[in-house]
Write a structure and sequence with these properties.
Mean pLDDT: 90
Number of strands: 7
Structural class: alpha/beta
Number of helices: 10
Low-confidence stretches: none
Length: 280
């Protein structure tokens, strides 16, 4: 899709405490962007500030925090935000029968509702400027689902749908909506997911932490550095003809293709085989 160049190279990024968010903040700053780097916890905000970033708290699970964060960003920039990178999120592992309503609600609050709320609060300034880029860091799991991560997959499917719909809605405004679809990336994602599992899934008959650890270990064979995702985000923000989707890592490129080529029964059997043949 062809988009006008971003006039105001100011970007608001969520989830900058570690991993993809921190790598993206550093790379964009190195390429001349003014970076508003947010994080949920104050200690991470202080860490970002110590690196010279403009930083303030933003918790996507808290609608008041989202409203205040958007207001702070717009006030600091006089409404001139050229890009928004929705990176913050986490994964709630577990067999779906064990994921409580509370846990499922929080998963959607952070990964979907907070993301879209923040987007809609920043969007009017971009439309007024006639240019802007909205980048959602999704996942290959936004286009296929795997067992023991159903709640997380559901949120990423939702993000993909929201992006595809809003991209068309914003046609002729100069604002583009772009999806980044990583596969395995060397971040704290799985460590945080394990923490979520420990707190939410006591005594599950179909999910145990050791099996989850084995799944993670298998994925690491294909893992790439968070900087690889940051480079794709930079392209999405600076290209005059950005793609609608950027896939990163081999699984992210091959997985959706296999899902469409294989009969449904074969795909299910492949996933069942993978789970069944994990060995401690």
């Amino acid at each position: 899709m062809r988009l006008p160049a971003v006039e105001h190279k100011t970007v608001l990024i969520t989830g900058c405490s570690t991993g993809i968010g921190r790598a993206t903040a550093r790379l964009l700053r190195d390429h001349g962007w003014r970076v508003l780097a947010t994080a949920r916890q104050l200690k991470d905000v202080d860490s970002l500030a110590s690196e010279g970033f403009e930083s303030f708290p933003l918790d996507l699970a808290d609608d008041r925090s989202v409203a205040e964060g958007a207001k702070t960003a717009l006030n600091r920039t006089n409404g001139r935000i050229g890009a928004l990178v929705n990176n913050a999120g986490y994964g709630q592992p577990g067999a779906l029968e064990d994921v409580s309503r509370e846990a499922l609600r929080r998963q959607f609050e952070v990964n979907v509702f907070g993301l879209q709320d923040l987007t809609n609060r920043i969007l009017p300034a971009m439309i007024k400027a006639g240019a802007g880029r909205i980048v959602h860091v999704s996942s290959v799991l936004g286009r296929l689902a795997i067992p023991l991560m159903g709640a997380y997959c559901a949120t990423k499917h939702a993000v993909e749908a929201l992006a595809d719909a809003q991209r068309i809605e914003l046609r002729n405004t100069g604002v583009g909506v772009i999806l980044i679809e990583p596969g395995p990336i060397e971040t704290a994602f799985h460590r945080n997911a394990r923490t979520a599992a420990e707190s939410m899934l006591p005594g599950s008959p179909r999910f145990d932490l050791e099996r989850y650890a084995l799944l993670v270990e298998a994925d690491r064979r294909f893992a790439m550095k968070p900087e690889s995702v940051a480079k794709a985000i930079l392209k999405a923000l600076e290209s005059r003809c950005p793609r609608r989707r950027y896939t990163i890592t081999v699984p992210a490129k091959i997985g959706p293709l296999l899902r469409t080529m294989l009969p449904g029964a074969w795909w299910d059997a492949l996933l069942e085989y993978r789970i069944r043949n994990l060995r401690k």
